[in-house]
Each structure stands twice: as C-alpha cells, then as structure tokens.
Specification:
- The longest helix is centred in the last third of the chain and has 25 residues.
- It contains 19 helices and four strands.
- Helix 2 packs across helix 5, helix 4 runs antiparallel to helix 5 and helix 9 packs parallel to helix 11.
- It is an all-alpha fold.
- The strands form two sheets. The chain has a two-stranded antiparallel ribbon. A two-stranded antiparallel ribbon has the order 3-4.
- The chain is globular, with a radius of gyration of 24 Å.
- The two termini are 41 Å apart.
- It has one domain.
- Helix content is 67%, strand content 2%.
- A hairpin with a 4-residue loop joins strand 1 and strand 2.
Length: 421
C-alpha cells in the first residue's frame, strides 16, 4: 500500500514537472515583444549598454512562421500586392538591391507583427491583453512628468551625444523619442473605452481611465495626436450625448481649455497651425528648396506634391531616405509623403488598405463595421502625416490588438452564457 502511494506521489510530481516545463512559443514571443515595444525600448536605447533597435525585434516572430505557417487572408494578400508594387517601382526606377531591401524591411516588420497578433490573440486572452494595455497606459503620465522634471539632470552623454532635446523627452515607457507611438497607443485605448460599451465592461472606473489617458495625450509633445484625441471626444459627444449634456460638457471643455491654454499646452500646435495657414501651403521658394534638400516642412511637401505630376509607382524605394546614415534627401517626414514619393499612389493606397482591412475584417460577403474600427483607422490616417506608421512595431501592435477587441464577448452575451450554465 505504501509502495502504491509512493508510486502515485512520484507520478504526480512528474506530471507537475512536465506541466511546469511546457513552453508556449506564441505566448513567449508575444509578451516579449509587448514588453519591449511598450515598456523597455526607451530605457534600453538610453542606457546604450548594447546596440538595440526596436523594430527588428519583430524578427522574433519568424520562428513562429516556420512552426505554424502563415494564415492566408485578405490582409496577407494585400501585403503581397504591396511587395509586388515595391519591386516594380524598384525595377523601373533602377534602385539598388540594398535600397530595395531596406525599404521592404518596413513592410516585413508590419507583416510579422500582424501575423503574431493573428496567431496569438484569441477570445480567451484578449481581455487580459487589454487590461495590460490599460495598465501600461495609466503609468505614462507620472513617468512623463518625471521625465519633464529630470531632463536637466540627464548626463551630457545622453543629452548631447544622443541629440535628446527637451521636447523629445516625453515618451514615457515607449521607444526613445516615441511620443507619437505612445499617444497613439493611449488614443486607441480611449476609443475602446468610449465607443465599445458592450465590451469594455471589465475595465473598472472606465470614465476616470479615459479622462486620465486623454490628459496624458494633452500634456505630451505629440501635437497632431492632441488634435486626434479632441476629434475622438467630439465624435463621442455628437454620437452619444444629449443636447443638455453637450451644453454642460461644452462649458466644462471651455473651462478646461482655458486652464490648458494658461499652462501653454497648445502653444506649439497653435503656432504651427498659424504658420502653416499663412506661409506653408504657399511654400516660398526657400522653403521648397529646403524641403528638396531634406529639410522638414510639411506645408512645403504638400504644396510640392500637389504641383507635381502624379506619381503612380513613385521614384523608387529608399530614393529619398538613407537608412544607413539616417539622412533625408528630401523632407518626406511622414508615411504619406514617403510612400507617395517612393512607391507612388498605388503603393500608398495599398499600405492604407492593409490598415483598413485590419480595422474592418471581412467575413465572406460581410464586413464588420464598428465605431472602434472607424476611429482607429481615422486616427492612423491623421498620424501618417507626421509619422512612419508601417515600420513602427508599437503602432502596428496596438492597432492590431484594438482592432481585434470584437473577440470580447458582449456583456449581454456573457450574461446569457452564465444563465445557461
């Protein structure tokens, strides 16, 4: 009898060890990239202990591709079409193989992140992932405030050697100088909290969280995302609130705006808008010349391309940006300008079609249209005027995650399932 008990105990211990040794590759890779993209990239770059680049971290997905294969869908098809257009542009414009490969890397990074989310994010883990995202979002404001206060105390090796200016030192836990990605992350969470009321029931104090995340965006240095978060709240007000509530909300917003203006929160964006309105769109000769030699000028870029011949397949991938030296040969700051000038209108539209299909999944003859999808796609379009969205894995990762929140059971459905049990 004792021998039998010992045998059973030994078998139980062995089973426990086997369970503890189980490695789930998808989970390991997903959370490794999640932590690096949203929490550790900035500090790793600043510590400079070893050479680190965030976007190549997506290459960790390659072993999963070999293990589990590629799940072909319409998004993967458009990725393939985009690669073909880039190849065609490279051949016609006779760019080097190096230029072609360096441009394709941005498409590869985005494809790998999309594939990872499709492989790992399911109905049984999406709630946990969103909760973690909210937790990450909530810590950004105190960390940003700490960064504001400690900039002057940074070693000169970091400030001067890495060309870190005060305006860049507000990226929270995200990538170095990644305030655009951070605020995009926060804005997408606000969209989910405001518009998906049937699925956001598991977030406690969601109104407080939404306001907290909004305030974080407003005190950041990502000017265009301030416009995006205001746009989101305006749509929410028009869509859901009564006239009486809108009136009181309007009074509150006026008071809040007055407070924010008094602290200079909107100074930069007002100055930039005023300057663009009066001078940029007309683009003086000197402004255009600066843009043509790599200088930053969004108004000059818009004026230049509006007055140029239509670019169907562009002037060739990596034609105007040297990845190795990180120098611009033309001031194409932003996804829309880079893709239009280098791989043309066709390449640009295909890149947007990828994000469109992610936001609006097509099942058979039906397309899933939600307010969340409409708004995350709209905000991404806005961000693409100032930021390279495709190669930025933190942008693509949170976009894909929030786009898949339709997997969360609706509150009514969840209650029905509990009753049936």
């Amino acid at each position: 009898m004792i021998a039998q008990d010992n045998a059973q105990s030994s078998a139980a211990v062995n089973r426990s060890k086997q369970r503890s040794l189980v490695i789930r590759p998808k989970k390991l890779v997903f959370y490794t990239i999640f932590i690096l993209a949203f929490l550790l990239s900035g500090i790793l770059v600043m510590l400079d202990i070893f050479p680190y680049r965030m976007n190549p971290v997506s290459l960790l997905v390659l072993p999963l591709i070999f293990l589990y294969g590629i799940r072909f869908d319409k998004v993967v098809l458009v990725f393939g079409l985009l690669v073909l257009v880039i190849l065609l542009s490279a051949i016609i414009n006779q760019v080097s193989v190096t230029q072609l490969v360096l441009f394709l890397r941005s498409v590869a990074f985005a494809f790998l992140i999309y594939s990872l989310v499709r492989m790992f994010v399911k109905r049984d883990n999406i709630v946990t992932i969103i909760k973690l995202c909210v937790l990450v979002g909530m810590v950004q404001l105190p960390i940003m405030l700490m960064q504001f206060m400690t900039y002057d105390a940074l070693p000169s090796r970091i400030r001067d050697g890495m060309r870190l200016y005060r305006i860049d030192y507000s990226f929270g836990t995200f990538h170095y100088k990644g305030d655009a990605a951070m605020t995009f992350f926060l804005t997408l969470l606000v969209i989910f909290l405001l518009f998906d009321y049937k699925r956001n029931y598991f977030i406690r104090y969601k109104w407080f969280v939404a306001i907290w995340l909004t305030l974080t965006v407003l005190v950041s240095n990502a000017e265009i995302m301030k416009l995006a978060i205001i746009f989101v709240w305006v749509v929410f007000a028009i869509r859901f609130l009564s006239i009486k509530t809108l009136f009181y909300l309007g009074i509150g917003l006026v008071l809040l705006a007055g407070i924010l203006f008094s602290f200079g929160v909107f100074n930069d964006i007002i100055d930039e808008f005023s300057y663009s309105l009066t001078t940029n769109l007309s683009a003086s000769e000197s402004k255009t010349e600066a843009f043509m030699t790599g200088g930053y000028g969004r108004g000059a870029a818009i004026a230049y391309y509006l007055n140029s011949e239509l670019k169907i397949i562009g002037d060739g991938p990596s034609r105007y940006y040297d990845v190795v030296t990180q120098k611009y040969l033309r001031g194409n700051n932003g996804h829309i300008f880079t893709f239009y000038s280098e791989v043309g209108l066709v390449g640009l539209l295909l890149s947007y079609l990828i994000f469109f299909l992610i936001a609006f999944p097509i099942r058979g003859r039906h397309i899933r249209v939600r307010w969340v999808g409409i708004l995350i796609f709209s905000v991404l379009l806005l961000l693409s005027f100032t930021t390279e969205v495709l190669p930025n894995i933190s942008i693509v990762l949170i976009y894909c995650i929030v786009a898949m929140t339709y997997l969360i059971p609706e509150k009514e459905t969840l209650n029905s399932e509990v009753v049936n049990r």
